[in-house]
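From the methods appendix. Each design record in this collection lists the tokenized structure first, followed by the designed amino acid sequence. Records were kept in a plain field format so they could be parsed without special tools. The example shown here is representative of the layout used throughout.

RECORD:
FOLD TOKENS (447 positions):
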């Protein structure tokens, strides 16, 4: 068969397509998206020969490989849009896909063309080796994840609607996310791989205060900006209360066997030691976010001139809602806290997802695939993702929706996501392909 390039060359070509997402559609250069689709067609001939391809909203790609059984299919999801770059901070051209010291650099290497291309490589390899699938395999690649699955034109949402209409229910859905963390904080003596089994909710709330305005030389007792700032400060100085939730419960259960004393004892008796454990967990922003609804000020506005009083002053509060909590409850609690002088307007949001089970074969298949490509990894545990992914739309139409970290080099380079000098280790990339291959083989078996 004609060779179309190595897996690494394919990833380079993928990164070189400048598929940058903007909320304002008129700023999107769709030619680059066309280029990416043409690249896929030319690089993965077997996939394009054996699978059907549908385009939703013109650019969201839905590949379907027919399996030999009629059992529920699996889906490997991803998105091929990327966030914009600020060129100044980059040591290399952001879309150059240059290779230095064992790393490939470029916007999208981690978030998430590396993942998408690894999936394509794995599928193509299976097909070329004659490996058949018993379950149908869907590859669902969105084109506008970075602007949010709440958008009307969200490729993921529209794709989900289409598949739902067809009555499809998935056995397993895999998307981006997950993490590698140092186990020390949890009393575990190795790196821990985390698989996201649910996501927090999202909510923007606008706080506003009004005043009749007037001249800044004769100010009222308190200005609108003062009132709204005071209300917003009440939100930040008194955090929402912390508690365990089904996702943290599942994580603790998975980690306890690997914990050393005294952590093992504390977590085994976590109801008894809850106050101490929660106090420890809220100390770091990362773990705090997994046990409480968070809120933080993100935008503020007052008057339009330095010597003019604001008639309306606004502050946006961005909240991430813990499972078990809800948009409605969060809004009510904000209203109570800020008091009647402040208008509370919920802007956009989505509820926290349900938490998928991790005591089912799907979880074992995915975690075994990870530990087999990364033998140094001893522990894989479920956890709550605090960021949002497109996969949230599949909760309710799948037995398992997991966010997986195919590349262990992410542990050190996580901070380059959405930032300068995003990079992926080439070794991890190749292991990621192996990971998806194993998942494809094992997860499509019907026994
Ligand atoms: Zn992403």
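DESIGN:
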């Amino acid at each position: 068969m004609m060779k179309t390039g190595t897996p690494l060359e394919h990833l380079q070509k993928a990164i070189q397509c400048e598929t940058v997402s903007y909320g304002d559609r008129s700023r999107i250069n769709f030619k680059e998206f066309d280029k990416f689709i043409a690249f896929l067609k030319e690089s993965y001939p077997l996939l394009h020969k054996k699978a059907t391809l549908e385009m939703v909203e013109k650019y969201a790609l839905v590949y379907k490989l027919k399996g030999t059984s009629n059992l529920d299919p699996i889906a490997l999801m991803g998105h091929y849009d990327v966030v914009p770059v600020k060129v100044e901070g980059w040591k290399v051209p952001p879309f150059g896909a240059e290779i230095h010291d064992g790393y490939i650099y470029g916007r999208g290497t981690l978030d998430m063309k590396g993942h998408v291309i690894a999936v394509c490589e794995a599928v193509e390899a299976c097909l070329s080796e004659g490996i058949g699938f018993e379950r149908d395999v869907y590859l669902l690649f969105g084109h506008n994840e970075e602007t949010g699955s709440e958008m009307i034109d969200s490729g993921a949402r529209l794709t989900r609607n289409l598949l739902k209409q067809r009555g499809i229910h998935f056995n397993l859905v895999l998307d981006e996310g997950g993490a590698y963390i140092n186990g020390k904080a949890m009393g575990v003596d190795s790196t821990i791989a985390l698989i996201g089994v649910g996501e927090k909710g999202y909510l923007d709330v606008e706080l506003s205060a009004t005043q009749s305005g007037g001249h800044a030389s004769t100010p009222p007792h308190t200005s609108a900006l003062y009132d709204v700032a005071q209300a917003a400060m009440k939100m930040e100085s008194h955090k929402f209360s912390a508690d365990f939730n089904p996702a943290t419960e599942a994580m603790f259960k998975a980690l306890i066997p690997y914990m050393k004393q005294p952590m093992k004892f504390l977590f085994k008796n976590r109801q008894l030691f809850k106050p101490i454990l929660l106090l420890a967990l809220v100390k770091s922003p990362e773990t705090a976010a997994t046990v409480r609804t968070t809120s933080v000020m993100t935008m503020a506005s007052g008057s339009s001139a330095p010597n003019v009083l604001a008639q309306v002053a606004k502050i946006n509060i961005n909240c991430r809602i813990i499972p078990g909590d809800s948009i409605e409850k969060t809004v009510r609690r904000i209203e109570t806290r800020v008091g009647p002088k402040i208008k509370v307007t919920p802007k956009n949001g989505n509820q926290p997802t349900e938490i998928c089970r991790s005591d089912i074969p799907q979880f074992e298949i995915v975690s075994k695939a990870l530990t087999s490509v990364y033998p140094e990894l001893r522990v894989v545990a479920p956890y709550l993702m605090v960021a949002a992914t497109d996969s949230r739309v599949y909760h309710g139409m799948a037995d398992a929706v997991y966010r997986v970290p195919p590349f262990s080099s992410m542990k050190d380079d996580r901070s380059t996501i959405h930032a300068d000098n995003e990079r992926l280790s080439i070794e991890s990339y190749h292991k990621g392909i192996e990971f998806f291959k194993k998942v494809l083989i094992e997860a499509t078996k019907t026994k």
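APPENDIX NOTE: DSSP finds 14 helices and 16 strands in the chain.
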